[in-house]
Backbone:
């Protein structure tokens, strides 16, 4: 939503959260986003990226193009950290391709610092790295890889289109919405067992099912109109949800109060004190692209921000890092509203 990650939080009073500095996970995710465009450029380029040249002393030295240097940086980030911090996830296809191809070579040489190469090692290093580049290009051109990348992009686009249509439908039936954005997680002192993540996932899934059931029943707030939710996992943050909830603007106005009610219900009733939450609506005035709170259908800028910034936050991360299909569903959305009777005083389009 803005330059701050809404999941970068620490406990405040009760179950509420406040911002904190970037964690190691955020740094890793930033690295992940930087790797993908480098690999894309490599597979679309031609020719060698690494060379052996004779210096003034007559010794062989290692040289690389600018793109080659960026590839070396991506390689040195390594896959080990990603698998440690995000063990239940599928990596971006281009990032996974780089790590998989690198593993087929001598990892010590591929990941070694080229600035410390002895003259006798230069030719072997150049041959190996250019071989890696050739392998990347070959595998990226395969039907299987192209099918995989299309599936990744298609999954994100499908969710984005579905959520956009859902928001449109809510505005078609209700001229004013109260849009709540809340992050739900677990207290650090009550973390789920990280040695058995699938068992922890089962508990988290059960907690979410209970919360969703309560929201539909009107607990703690009556007459929820709809919701969208994204489940994520991080080594430090554990399991956490990014949740959008919609209520009628004709019945409610105090979005911050409503968000706190839901957060406390999660923290106390659903998780028995193990949960905590962050009230995004409390800081909505600080966002560069505001799109939560009370929104009228004719507030074109707010509606646009809601769909292109706030809602997109729940789906776009899928392209970089997503929970694997073995972990079950990670994105949830309410049913499309029914249009029985008249629509409240506005055309059926947003």
Residues:
């Amino acid at each position: 939503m803005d330059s701050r990650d809404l999941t970068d939080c620490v406990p405040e009073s009760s179950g509420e959260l406040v911002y904190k500095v970037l964690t190691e996970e955020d740094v890793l995710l930033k690295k992940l986003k930087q790797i993908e465009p480098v690999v894309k450029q490599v597979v679309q380029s031609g020719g060698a990226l690494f060379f052996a040249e004779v210096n003034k002393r007559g010794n062989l030295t290692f040289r690389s193009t600018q793109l080659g240097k960026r590839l070396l940086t991506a390689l040195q980030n390594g896959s080990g950290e990603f698998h440690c911090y995000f063990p239940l996830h599928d990596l971006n296809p281009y990032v996974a391709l780089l790590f998989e191809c690198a593993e087929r070579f001598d990892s010590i040489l591929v990941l070694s610092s080229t600035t410390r190469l002895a003259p006798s090692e230069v030719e072997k290093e150049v041959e190996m790295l250019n071989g890696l580049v050739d392998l990347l290009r070959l595998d990226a051109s395969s039907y299987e890889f192209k099918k995989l990348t299309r599936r990744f992009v298609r999954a994100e686009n499908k969710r984005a289109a579905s959520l956009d249509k859902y928001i449109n439908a809510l505005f078609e039936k209700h001229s004013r919405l109260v849009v709540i954005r809340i992050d739900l997680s677990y207290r650090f002192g009550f973390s789920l067992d990280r040695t058995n993540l699938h068992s922890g996932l089962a508990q988290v899934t059960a907690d979410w099912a209970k919360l969703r059931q309560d929201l539909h029943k009107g607990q703690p707030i009556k007459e929820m109109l709809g919701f969208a939710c994204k489940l994520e996992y991080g080594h430090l943050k554990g399991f956490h949800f990014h949740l959008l909830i919609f209520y009628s603007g004709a019945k409610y106005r105090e979005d911050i109060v409503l968000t706190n009610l839901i957060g406390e219900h999660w923290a106390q009733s659903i998780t028995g004190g193990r949960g905590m939450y962050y009230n995004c609506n409390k800081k909505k005035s600080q966002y560069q692209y505001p799109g939560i709170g009370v929104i009228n259908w004719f507030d074109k800028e707010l509606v646009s921000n809601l769909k292109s910034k706030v809602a997109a936050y729940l789906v776009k991360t899928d392209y970089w890092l997503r929970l694997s299909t073995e972990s079950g569903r990670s994105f949830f959305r309410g049913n499309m509203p029914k249009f029985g009777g008249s629509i409240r005083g506005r055309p059926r389009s947003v």
